[in-house]
């Protein structure tokens, strides 16, 4: 008998029929004797609908009232879910975040969970009930309703699992797991049985939009086994777990992430003197523009070229700022390119294998793909290239590292 926290996302509870289907699923687990805490999102589209209502009322609604409004989406779902479970003859109890009490800080619309009082939930479970908790919300110490940021129900699920010391936090969604890369780009992309928290963080921040990143960090911190699986099909999904140092032969690369929304800016001919990097990037970060990769060339004739990448949406703004800075610094010129993409190979196996980057560069060279920038971390190598090569690059790397269904030579 295990204790599972199961989180069902917006699409999984998007209609009455789907809520009933989730209830059937929960009943199966109950019938096997497991204790179940369910946490749910708002029905799909509901949070957006509420945001639209608010913006009809006010240009800049107060964050406190936004939270009062947005938290209702999940409140609807917990009630309907509890009714569906009752219809199946199960004992059930629903709670909003503030009823539980999920204590958060007071930063409305992106609050962080500080503590969860599990006493009531524990008592209900002992009493044989399924407990249904509204995702995405809590209350601050003064009782003001707060929400956790878009996608925050994932974090509620993980936090409940950590507080209850659950055996597993299961995130049910509309995909059946985490894949080696986007199956829309590579047909042979495979579902991973397991991925480590660190890898998942690298994959997530690089564009796999399966889980709220915060929930993965949270799960890693509290060592909550986290499983992503489909609410529509049976299957084991993907287990996100800590790196085990048993000598199991792990693949060197677990997946390939990519990001099309990149843009690159270069200031040519800046004087190579102390403080230049901060003079260039200071105004960029003051404008709240996030910088990803940074590259500075070796100086010739006392000047150097300085390149960095930003999100494509920030390109125009960054270009303007940089043009001003370059005049102040008496640089030669500013160049920009907003048709670039980033491709990354990710894997904890890299730590113990040499030559991974070389293999990546070889595969790209074979396809005549020019690499414009490179950055590495302990478990990741990223390259920037012209956007038009993105698909080709992902496909060739996927097969070079034998990640596909038909790539492996064993058996
Ligand atoms: N309903 C919230 C949202 O749409 C929270 C969630 O679904 O996780 O962002
Ligand atoms: Mg979600």
Overview of the structural elements:
By secondary structure, this protein is α/β, with parallel strands linked by helices. It has 2 domains: 3-241, Acetylglutamate kinase-like (Carbamate kinase); 246-401, VC0802-like (2-Layer Sandwich). It has helices at 16-31, 46-57, 63-87, 97-100, 119-126, 153-164, 197-205, 213-222, 276-286, 315-328, 356-366, 390-400, and strands at 3-8, 35-40, 92-95, 102-104, 113-116, 130-134, 137-139, 145-147, 168-173, 194-196, 226-230, 238-241, 255-271, 291-296, 303-311, 333-346, 373-377, 380-386. The chain has an 8-stranded mixed beta sheet with strand order 3-6-2-1-9-11-12-10, with helices on both faces. Strands 14-15-13-16-18-17 form a 6-stranded antiparallel beta sheet. Strand 14 and strand 15 form a beta hairpin. The longest helix is centred in the N-terminal third of the chain and has 25 residues, at 63-87. The protein is globular, with a radius of gyration of 24 Å. The chain binds aspartic acid (ASP) and magnesium ion.
Short description:
The protein has helices at 16-31, 46-57, 63-87, 97-100, 119-126, 153-164, 197-205, 213-222, 276-286, 315-328, 356-366, 390-400; strands at 3-8, 35-40, 92-95, 102-104, 113-116, 130-134, 137-139, 145-147, 168-173, 194-196, 226-230, 238-241, 255-271, 291-296, 303-311, 333-346, 373-377, 380-386. The chain is α/β, with parallel strands linked by helices and 411 residues long. The chain folds into 2 domains: 3-241, Acetylglutamate kinase-like (Carbamate kinase, 3-Layer(aba) Sandwich), CATH 3.40.1160; 246-401, VC0802-like.
């Amino acid at each position: 008998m295990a204790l599972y926290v199961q989180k069902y996302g917006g699409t999984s509870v998007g209609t009455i029929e789907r809520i009933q289907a989730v209830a059937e699923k929960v009943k199966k687990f109950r019938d096997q004797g497991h204790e179940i805490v369910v946490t749910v999102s708002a029905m799909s589209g509901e949070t957006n609908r509420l945001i639209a209502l608010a913006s009809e009322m006010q240009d800049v609604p107060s964050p406190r009232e936004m939270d009062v409004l947005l938290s209702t989406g999940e409140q609807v779902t917990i009630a309907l879910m509890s009714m569906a479970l009752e219809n199946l003859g199960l004992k059930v109890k629903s709670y909003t975040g503030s009823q539980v009490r999920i204590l958060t800080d007071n930063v409305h619309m992106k609050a962080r969970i500080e503590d969860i009082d599990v006493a009531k939930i524990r008592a209900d479970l002992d009493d044989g009930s399924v407990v249904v908790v509204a995702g995405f919300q809590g209350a601050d110490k003064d009782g003001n309703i707060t929400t956790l940021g878009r996608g925050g129900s994932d974090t509620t699920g993980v936090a409940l699992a950590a507080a209850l010391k659950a055996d597993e936090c299961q995130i049910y969604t509309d995909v059946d797991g985490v894949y080696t890369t986007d199956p829309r780009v590579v047909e042979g992309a495979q579902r991973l049985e397991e991925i480590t928290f660190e890898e998942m963080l690298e994959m997530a921040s690089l564009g796999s939009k399966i889980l709220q990143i915060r929930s993965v960090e949270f799960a890693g911190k509290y060592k909550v086994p986290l499983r992503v699986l489909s609410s529509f099909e049976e299957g084991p999904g993907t287990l996100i777990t800590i790196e085990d140092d048993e000598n199991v032969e792990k693949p060197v690369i677990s997946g390939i992430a990519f990001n099309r929304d990149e843009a690159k800016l270069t200031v040519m001919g800046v004087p190579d003197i102390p403080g230049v990097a901060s003079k260039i990037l200071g105004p960029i970060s003051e404008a709240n523009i996030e910088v990803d990769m940074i590259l500075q060339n070796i100086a010739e004739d006392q000047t150097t070229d300085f390149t960095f990448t930003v999100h494509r949406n920030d390109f125009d703004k960054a270009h303007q700022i940089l043009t001003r800075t370059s005049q102040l610094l008496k640089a030669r010129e500013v160049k920009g390119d907003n048709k670039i993409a980033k491709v990354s190979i990710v894997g904890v196996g890299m730590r113990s294998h040499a030559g991974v980057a070389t293999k990546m560069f070889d595969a790209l060279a074979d396809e005549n793909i020019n690499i414009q920038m490179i950055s590495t971390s302990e478990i990741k190598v990223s390259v920037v290239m012209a956007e038009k090569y993105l698909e080709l690059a992902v496909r060739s790397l996927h097969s070079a590292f034998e990640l596909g269904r038909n790539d492996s030579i064993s058996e």
